[in-house]
Amino acid sequence: MGCCNRRCGLIAGAVFGAVVAILGGVLIPVGNSIIERTVEKEAVIEQGTTAYDNWVSAGPGVYRQFWLFDVKNPVEVLQHGAIPVVIEKGPYTYRTRYLPKEDITFNNNFTASFLLPAGAIFEPSMSVGPEEDNVTSLNLAVAGAYSLVPKELHIFLEKAINSSKSSLFQHRTVKEILWGYKDPMLNSLVGLFAPYNGTYDGKYNVYTGEDDINKVGIIDRWRGYRSLPFWNDKYCNMLNGTDASSFPPFVDKKKPLYFFSSDICRSVSASYLESLDLKGIEVYRFTLHPNTLASPNVNPDNKCYCRDPVITENCTMAGVLDISSCQDRKPIYISLPHFLYGSPSLFENVKGLAPSEEHHFTYLDVEPTTGFTLRFSKRIQVNMMYGPSKIIKVLKKVKNYTIFPVIWLNETAVLDDETADMFKKELISRIQMLEIIQQVLLGVGVSLFVLCLTIYCVVRSRDSHKLF
Question: What is the dihedral of CA 12, 15, 16, 17, to 10 degrees?
Fold first, then answer.
């Protein structure tokens, strides 16, 4: 009778262990379903959700660091046709995107529209010097006029340069080059980002995700356009992805992330590089592919971005993008800092550049469950062009068309400690707790089942031997 009770107890223990293990196994899909429903609910852009609170606010501190290229041999360039030698000077840091979205409107087609105001506040503690630091830089007015004025009219441009006592290079403060100054030749405001404060980056229309969570944050329209009007090509004019501040939840590292950047007037994609720990939160790092600004003979998709075959060496030049068509005809060329991944010819006409993937590539650190971008670093360089002229005196010694670096910038942000703690408490800790419960139940159940079953077999074997 005792043996029977012992066997029955072991069988009951094995059954109980199996039930506990099954419960743990069942909790895996059930728990995952709970997590998915919770995340999907909180990721929708509507009042009362976590996504809305993050979306509508100014968010974490976003900073723009600027490095200006200081020309060390301007006289030799002008008088002897020497190759310009530059050295970067910076960073000069400004806080940007500190203003919340404006004119938020929810539409009937599951989209929300808004305006994003621009502003910049100088941060002396994060800069190498004051805004009043002087830099010898390319003359923006002269280079700009050279790009826009046909050769047949260079005689008039030469007169304007002479009468205003302008030259190919100029001494200006950091503040003037970035935010504007009254140019003596054009008699108007000139600056790389002038005007900036109090302006808007156009009106955005984005999907809220209410009808389809896989569309949340994706841009429906920008400035009223469903496709861009800049490139005279259907592919290059595609308006893809989000604004990179967030992506639809449950990010798949095997798939690229698409986003639109108004700074470069086009959509781009980023691919998974590695997983990192950010203040106790796992993030996926996505980076721009080196082929993003490759020449069309390497990346045929870029053919429609080639606007001037002469400047781009019959569209074989890599590393630069002419964005004048979306900058009110300002002759601006965008590249990665120090012409990273650029053609050798770019380095033949300017000395002093030292591209580095570590310091000059763009990345996004995305939390994969929610799709929120928790840290990013967007790095681009602003260049202008000048070339030879038989009429314009300050260009007579110039031998080649030169895409000249004026500044490069790093726009960066990272979630603060308070937000990180909240994120971990509200999401990560709950997911981890559910996973722990699942693993404990599964582990204890399987262990109990195996242990009881093993002991039962041993006891039964011994009892069988006693009968003989």
Answer: 120
- Alpha-carbon distance of 249 to 213, in angstroms, equals 8
192/177 Cα distance (integer angstroms):
6
| 323 within 8 A of 333, measured Cβ to Cβ | yes
Averaged over 146-165, what is the pLDDT? 94
Number of H helices, E strands in the chain: 10, 19
In the predicted model, what is the mean pLDDT of residues 388-403? 94
pLDDT band at 11 (very low <50, low <70, confident <90, very high): low
Neighbours of 439 (CB within 10 A): 13
Tens digit of each residue's pLDDT (9 = 90 or more) over 182-240? 999 999 999 999 888 889 988 999 999 999 999 999 999 999 999 999 998 999 999 99
- Predicted confidence at residue 137, as pLDDT, reads 97
* Integer angstrom CA distances of residue 308 from 33, 357, 427: 53, 28, 50
Closest CA to 333 of 232, 408, 229, 227: 408
At residue 312, the pLDDT reads 84
**Residue pointed to by tokens 């005279």:** 232
Domain boundaries, the chain: 2-40+432-466, 61-98+120-197+227-415
369-370-376-382 Cα dihedral, nearest 10 degrees: 120
Give me the pLDDT at residue 19, please.
Answer: 47
pLDDT at 457: 63
Would you state the pLDDT for residue 129? 97
C-alpha closest to that of 324 among 64, 68, 115, 143: 143
Within 8 A by CB and 6+ apart from 229, the residues are 237
Q: Check: CB of residue 177 under 8 Å from CB of residue 134.
A: no
* 121-154 exposure pattern, b = at least 16 Cβ within 10 A, e = fewer: ebbeeebeeebebebbbbbbbbbbbbbeeeeeeb
CA-wise closest residue to 437 among 28, 34, 29, 36: 28
